Amino acid sequence: MLQTRNYCLVLLIQMMLLAYDLFVNSFSELLRGAPVNQLVLFIIQDIVILFNVIIILLMMFNTYVFQVGLVSLLLKRFRAVLIVSALYLTLSISLHCWVLNLRWIESDIFIWTDGLQALFVFQRTVAVFYYYFYKRTSELMGDPRLYQDSRWLRDAFARARQ
After folding, report:
1. Gap between the Cα atoms of 128 and 130, Å rounded
2. What percent of the chain is predicted at pLDDT more than 70?
């Protein structure tokens, strides 16, 4: 069972990782003159996104709902965050590769192709949904009903067996 002190620590770590991701999304363009620094920030950002997904999955594996075998119930309830996280990670890696590929040699020149601009806008738009769904899911994972036996869980288990 996830205890309050542990949940607060996990939630704090998740929010710090989200804050770093938001920071890189907001200010990475200011470092376009130093592509090595931008590369390091992008690599750390992609690792942070991956860590966030791993943390959510570990929290799901820790629930009583998962332990009694109602994985489909968890996936149905938290499907949006998993899909948006995978899409956001894919878009972020694509954007980072494209940006660094265009700007690595000539970092002082302002290069924005139409495709890069479209990917940039799409990635930032998906980022907003990622932040919303991830924060919402992080808070929903603190629901005590997920970590103990309850009436609604027994009803869900009975429906799943039929």
Report:
1. 5
2. 98
